[in-house]
Design goal:
By secondary structure, this protein is an alpha/beta fold. 41% of the residues lie in helices and 13% in strands. The protein contains 18 helices and 14 strands. The protein has helices at 13-23, 27-30, 40-48, 67-80, 109-125, 130-144, 181-184, 188-195, 215-224, 232-235, 249-263, 273-281, 283-287, 310-322, 340-343, 366-374, 386-396, 409-415, and strands at residues 58-62, 85-88, 100-102, 105-106, 149-153, 170-173, 205-207, 229-231, 294-297, 301-304, 328-332, 351-355, 379-382, 402-406. The strands form 2 sheets. The protein has an 8-stranded mixed beta sheet with strand order 4-3-2-5-1-6-7-8, sandwiched between helices. A 6-stranded mixed beta sheet has the order 9-10-14-11-12-13. The N and C termini lie far apart (50 Å).
């Protein structure tokens, strides 16, 4: 006559994560089918949760490249200034909980499980996407933990992104490049329009980098919203070192400094120069950021980087050229929505390639990648997995060589 207690029916952490990944669309794994065309569900979920986002002071960060690094730099600076900082970013590299942190500590497994178990029926009834649930979880967690500031990174685009229900203290757009063109448009102006969708009425906006095509789009949207607009690349003389050492971080630091300058004109926070200095020098320690020109070994020097589109890869390839080595080894894998005719010409021909397929449904076939790469005079072998590629590179490389791992966030994730 034993009646099991109710908690037996609850999912544990791994079951919860599997359910989130498998039951509902997840862009990270599936691509196009997971993209929602409006914010109806985001507002519906926020309302169901009691609108936790309305109790948060936020900075909203969009952009094609650099939004992750910029968000982590900002979080680190606020932490150094003594504030409790919520940080929401995507995608994760190893564990789902990397997406939601307070002062560098990941959300607990228990909180994730409780949130999903409690709201599961609502999610199913309203066909909530993976991303919408995760955004709701972040807002709920940050509000319950009473963070002083929440740094919220846009998932994709801006205008229709589930994070775009917040009213931040500052909106930030790092830069515009051609990525996710099947959703956001295939011109810089069209993509800028989507990113500019985070500009809110009367809220200042910081633009990290602009082009002749994108600047008028930003200016028009800011004027329409009566928002002060700041072009960080024109206004800031970047002078602080950082532990994030990729060349592309120079632009991100300018964006961060301009954002902090605006925050300092508002009454809620006070950030001192010492906070900025120590914040920028301790980004990895404070926030546990991974995969940004991250060094994994010294002899040979091994670098992994999550750059995966034309803008990001251009800068990373230029940085590789500055390195001193005898032979360059590149472990390369991509996802299937990449325009290979755009990214493959960026890679050096004087390297040995180890082609692989990231272990996700969106992973691009390594044999076809090898064939496409050969058309750009990039030569190498195909391997069954990312780890096999990496092992082969390690076996072939001498101490004076250089190994680069990249092409996709998911390739880096499998190595880490």
């Amino acid at each position: 006559y034993f009646s099991p207690p109710l908690f037996y029916s609850k999912m544990n952490y791994q079951e919860t994560i599997n359910w989130m990944f498998n039951q509902l669309p997840m862009y990270q794994l599936q691509g196009a089918s997971a993209y929602k065309k409006d914010l109806t569900n985001a507002y519906l979920l926020a309302n169901h949760l009691g609108n936790p986002e309305k109790n948060l002071k936020c900075i909203h960060v969009a952009g094609t490249n650099g939004k992750g690094s910029t968000s982590h730099m900002l979080a680190s600076i606020f932490q150094e200034a003594g504030y409790t900082v919520g940080l929401y970013t995507s995608p994760h590299l190893k564990d789902y909980r990397e997406r939601i942190k307070i002062n560098g500590e990941e959300i607990s497994e228990d909180f994730v499980c409780e949130f999903i178990n409690k709201n599961k029926a609502f999610f199913e009834a309203n066909d909530m996407s993976f991303f919408e649930m995760t955004v709701g979880l972040a807002f709920d967690y940050f509000a319950k933990e009473k963070v002083d500031i929440a740094i919220i990174e846009v998932g994709m685009g801006g205008r229709l992104d589930a994070t775009n229900i917040i009213t931040p203290l500052v909106s930030v757009i790092t830069n515009i490049g051609l990525d996710h063109t099947q959703f956001l448009g295939n011109t810089l102006e069209a993509i800028a329009f989507e990113k500019a969708g985070i500009i809110k009425s009367g809220i200042p906006v910081v633009i990290g980098e602009y082009t002749n095509e994108t600047r008028p789009v930003f200016e028009s949207k800011a004027k329409e919203n009566n928002s002060e607009i700041y072009f960080a690349s024109d206004l800031i003389h970047e002078r602080f070192p950082s532990d994030l050492i990729g060349d592309y971080q120079v632009h991100n630091k300018k964006t961060v400094l301009q954002t902090v300058a605006i925050i300092n004109t508002q009454k809620d926070f006070k950030i001192y120069e010492t906070d900025i200095k120590s914040g920028l020098l301790n980004v990895v320690k404070n926030t546990k950021l991974k995969g940004r020109w991250q060094q994994l070994g010294e002899f040979p020097k091994i670098i992994c980087d999550t750059a995966h589109n034309k803008n990001g890869l251009e800068i990373v390839m230029k940085q590789i050229q500055k390195e001193k080595y005898d032979t360059l080894h590149i472990v390369l894998g991509v996802v299937n929505d990449k325009d290979l005719n755009e990214v493959l010409p960026l890679f050096p021909t004087n390297a040995i390639y180890y082609f692989c397929k990231p272990n996700i449904p969106r992973g691009f076939d390594a044999k076809i990648l090898q064939e496409k790469a050969a058309g750009f005079n990039l030569k190498g072998e195909v391997f069954n997995s990312v780890s096999d590629s990496y092992t082969a590179a390690l076996q072939n490389a001498s101490k004076s060589d250089f190994i680069y791992i990249g092409g996709s966030t998911f390739v880096v994730a499998e190595i880490l």
